[in-house]
Write a structure and sequence with these properties.
two-stranded antiparallel ribbon, 7-stranded mixed β-sheet, binds S-adenosylmethionine, Rossmann fold
Amino acid sequence: MGAMSEMPADWKERIGLDKVYDVAGPEGNRRLYASWAETYESGFVVDSGYVYHRQAAEVFCEEFALLDQPVLDVGCGTGIVGAELARLGVSVIDGIDISPEMLAEAEAKTHDSRPLYRRLIEADLTASTALADRAYAGIVSSGAFTHGIFGPETISELLRAARPQARFALGINSAHFDKAGFGDWLQQRQSTGLITGLRFDLRPIYAGADESDPDQWSCIAVFAAV
Ligand SMILES: C[S@@+](CC[C@H](N)C(=O)[O-])C[C@H]1O[C@@H](n2cnc3c(N)ncnc32)[C@H](O)[C@@H]1O
């Protein structure tokens, strides 16, 4: 199937997202991505006209000047966000993901003849992780704050791993954003002084995104740690 210039009514079924959205929790996701890793890019990314990785990296880099400081790619998968970050000049990128099969794809990627990622960490981000305190100057994500993967509470673990003033650009599926209460959760963290500069940037997940379908849009939460 070629990339879809407009999303047909049955787009979720055509690219298999109806089944993906039924999976929930770390064990289900580990199994899902074990079987999807090999064809994730050549199948899903190409067939759906996925542009989310580029959107998240671009929003992240719009105001991020610390290009030689460590950046964490959350739910990095096969590494397509890392590739965009490197293209935009970010030079120290770590990736974290629950799936060893997705991480193996990321590990094989290079930029300027060097491994794309400095470090790849296998961990479940719905629980506490071994990420060091205050390790990252930037934190970015696409495709992982969505149905069945991360709710707002995962952001607490990321805030622990963020340096003061660290810049965040977290892509959140727009339907999931409303259902899981990300808006209130983030506004509350801003009122209690944990984050600052909160804004939302609405970006398409797919090239032919239909304006009326929130599952085809990402609300990218941009803020800084305090
Ligand atoms: C839709 S993919 C997005 C991958 C990549 N960021 C992209 O935009 O192509 C979601 C990723 O989240 C990871 N994931 C799912 N549950 C997780 C968890 N509990 N902890 C860490 N990563 C998880 C999956 O293994 C998968 O690689």
